[in-house]
Amino acid sequence: MNASAPVLTIDGPSGAGKGSISKRVAKHLGWHYLDSGALYRALGVAAINSNVELADEEALVALIEKVTLEFKVADHGEWGVFLDGEEIQQQLKTEAVGDIASKIAVFPKVRKGLLLKQYEFRQLPGLVADGRDMGSVVFPNAKTKIYLTASAEERANRRYKQLIEKGINANLRDVIYDVEQRDERDKNRSASPLTVPEGSVYIDSSLITIEEVVEQVLNSLKNI
After folding, report:
1. What is the Cα–Cα distance from 146 to 165, expressed in whole angstroms?
2. What is the band of 222 on the pLDDT scale with cuts at 50, 70, 90?
3. Nearest residue to 40 via CA among 129, 112, 100, 121
4. Domain span holding position 124
5. Overall number of domains in the chain
6. Which residues share a beta bridge with 72?
7. What pLDDT shows up at residue 223?
8. CA distance linking residue 127 with residue 118, whole number of Å
9. Is residue 72's pLDDT more than 90?
């Protein structure tokens, strides 16, 4: 970790567009990028591959110490997550892995184990950190913090369209229910619940374009 490297945190609920916005902002600035949620998903994949019981907190913590998790640009030019040297980006996009990540993220020791790995991404010239507790827990002293959200209906509709485009059968009501349930888990978990970080810029992306959100985020960085 390079403590002198500036950090921009972008927090918010699932489906708010944090990933798309963070990647665009990081590319525009030429900064490093961290998707903390992807690390939890990667741990979920590692647990499945190693036959680790998802309810066994101690086993998950031991697994964190064994595996190598990296976040870097892949050969195809996009950011990707690498588990023990193998890119697993496509696996991370499945609903099943996302649900696993949400469940194991409630464990305090798991969060602590992944915390140190997240610090390692703070390098010059700067870091764009995307997650649910980047500005409140991981990088609380970041000079610029964004809280990006959208209505549950809008976030579910985005997810529903993604599933349909992939040829996956989906029911919009079920997707809305899943989004609401995940929100409840994230907001009410005992370890680092989803909150609006103190001093953050609040952006609701429900009715504005990605380009407009990116512009608002970049404008917030003028004084960094």
Report:
1. 29
2. low
3. 100
4. 7-215
5. 1
6. 80
7. 58
8. 11
9. no
